[in-house]
Amino acid sequence: MPWHEKHSFRDCPWCGLTNTRLNVRAQNVAFQTRDGDFRHWAMLGCPSCGGATLIEHSSPGVTETLAFEVVPKAQDGAATIDHLPEDVERYYSDAIRVLGVGVPDAAAVQLRRTLEAAAAHFSIKEKVLMRSIEKLISDGHVTQIFGPVLHHIRAIGNVGAHASDERVDHAAAQRALRFTTQLLRNLFEVPGELKALNTKPNESLPPAPGSGPA
Length: 214
Prior knowledge:
Blueprint: E1 9-10, E2 20-21, E3 23-32, E4 38-45, E5 52-57, E6 67-71, H1 76-79, H2 86-100, H3 104-120, H4 129-138, H5 147-161, H6 170-198
Antiparallel strand pairs: 1-2, 3-4, 4-5, 5-6
Helix pairs in contact: 2-3, 2-6, 3-5, 3-6, 4-5, 5-6
């Protein structure tokens, strides 16, 4: 005591698997602070993605069982992207959801659809996704250096969509999800935030470096 198994039932902060029981690998592990106090930790692992979670809990010398700190934090906030069009958000959320329940192939397909839907909001609806990616770049919506990232998402989605011996593993789908998140922030969130800022009459952008006083 006081570690209690009730604290092992939680969402995985790595893959988003919800309401699961994380596997306890250690508990009541004490680390001393420079002031001579002790902090106690448990280490748990996700049965789906294998990600490790640390939970700081109350001392074994007390009767009340509490969990104080969780590392890493749940990724809900990190996965939230403002100003997403409804259809793009739906595909993106579906990708996170199916990855969380351990189906990386399906997640890869949903990320590919996310990319297609995002391009469509810039009036880019080529029959072949590769052409849409090239037009996103040529029209200046994303930079040339981001091209390999877009093609990686497309390629992973192709693997997930076709029946073959090649499968998308969790690590590959997670990487594609990170790439997609960054893409959506660049395409929708940052422009949306700037637009919202410019519509506020009492707020303005700070002067550019070296431009002198306003």
